[in-house]
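## Example pair
The file below holds two records. Each record gives the amino-acid sequence first, followed by its structure token line.
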Amino acid sequence: MLEPKAERSDQGVVNKAAPGSKWRNTLMAIGFFCMLAALFIGASMKEAAGGVPKFLGFGAIALIVISGVWALIERIPRKGGP
């Protein structure tokens, strides 16, 4: 019988993503989804939607900016650490 060869397993590979990056990615995805929703609501309802697309768009931009700024803050090395 043939014995299977010992191959390198991927079990020892460590996930290189930052521990808090999952919520940032989720926040960014929600922001882009809200941006698309604002675009489609504004295009489909024209003037009947009022300020809804505008507020949804500003909210989407806020979510994207919060996620991006927090990623930059975590990327800056902390001084005086052990």
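Second record, same layout:
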Amino acid sequence: MNRSSYIATVAIALLAFAFGTNTSLAQVRPSKASVELILVEASNNNSGVDSSLTAYANTLKRLFRFNSYRQISRTTTQLDLPGSTVAKLGQGNTLKITARASGREIAANLEWSAGIHARLKLKPRTPAVLGGPKIKNESGTYLLIVKLR
């Protein structure tokens, strides 16, 4: 084998390795996930949107017919993929998350202690909002913002 054939063979081998490595890295799924959970009290008491919810105000107003949104709690939970965890949301609410990796997203089953069950595909930094139970002794409801971090 002459020198130019040898260099060409090595170059092809390096390219094949590089493309093979990139392909396999693209298919790697995360083994852990971090999920942010925000419990919100939605009502019609004319107090507007809590400043901590400014980033979500337009979405909340578009999806729900309330004029007031107040953050009750905000927590971040970690879970192994596949796996499950239970997070305390506040006001006696808990959320069980069972999830598995699905590319860059996670497929999650959510079981809210208030009797609400949902299946979601969570995408990084894209919030999902769940309507929840009515607030006892009030004319509002709880909402839950779920965000894969």
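Notes on the second record: The mean pLDDT is 85. Strands lie at 32-43, 48-49, 68-80, 83-90, 93-102, 105-112, 116-122, 128-134, 141-148.
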